[in-house]
């Protein structure tokens, strides 16, 4: 592959004396690229090996491709002073590593890279909530949000993450504070400020349970 592509740096490991193997999520999925002499203090590829950076790059067409050149498009280095933003970014990157190879990466990547770039200036818990809810379809699980998971009634009042969806007033005595946000975040496409705010700690706890019970994926939210 000789065309320039764009990716998010997920992680890197040492390769030989001064090089790195860099793992990225891109619009063609998860890939790994050798960055030769990337660890050199002078002339190294610091921008290409820094976790969370968004880069465009050209690589060779090998089984383990080698980096030819890259351009830094965005950096989240400033997040290092904010533990909550670092936690949000870490959770997002860990989920991206697990996205199935047959997912629609050409649709997922633009959404994720756009929201990751907003972590610097926007509410990190809101961004994390939106990304985690929207990425559920990539894993082949869909929260039931339009009808009761027990009886198909559409008079919905509750959301149960362990059961995987909504409950009606006949099947639950609990009125959920988050059901409408699950619906909006899952279905709607809009700018970040147009998504309504909510109790993000409550919503993220439900998201955490949903991932745990239906995907066996652990979300570490502080």
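Q: What amino acid sequence fits the structure above?
A:
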């Amino acid at each position: 592959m000789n065309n320039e592509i764009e990716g998010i740096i997920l992680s890197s490991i040492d390769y030989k004396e001064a090089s790195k193997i860099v793992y990225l999520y891109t619009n063609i999925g998860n890939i790994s690229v050798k960055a030769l002499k990337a660890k050199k203090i002078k002339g190294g590829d610091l921008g290409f090996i820094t976790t969370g950076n968004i880069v465009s790059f050209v690589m060779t067409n090998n089984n383990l491709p080698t980096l030819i050149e890259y351009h830094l498009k965005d950096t989240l280095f400033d997040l290092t002073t904010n533990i909550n933003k670092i936690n949000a970014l870490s959770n997002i990157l860990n989920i991206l590593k697990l996205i199935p190879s047959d997912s629609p990466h050409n649709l997922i990547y633009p959404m994720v890279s756009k929201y990751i770039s907003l972590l610097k200036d926007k509410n990190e818990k809101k961004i994390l909530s939106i990304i985690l809810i929207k990425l559920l379809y990539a894993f082949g699980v869909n929260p039931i949000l339009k009808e009761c998971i027990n009886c198909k009634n559409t008079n919905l009042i509750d959301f149960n993450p362990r059961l995987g969806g909504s409950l009606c007033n006949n099947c639950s005595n609990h009125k959920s504070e988050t059901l409408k946000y699950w619906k909006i975040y899952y279905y709607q496409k809009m700018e970040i400020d147009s998504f309504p705010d909510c109790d993000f700690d409550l919503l993220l706890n439900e998201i955490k349970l949903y991932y745990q019970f239906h995907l066996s994926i652990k979300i570490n939210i502080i």
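Q: And what stands out in the fold?
A: The first strand starts at residue 5 and ends at 15.
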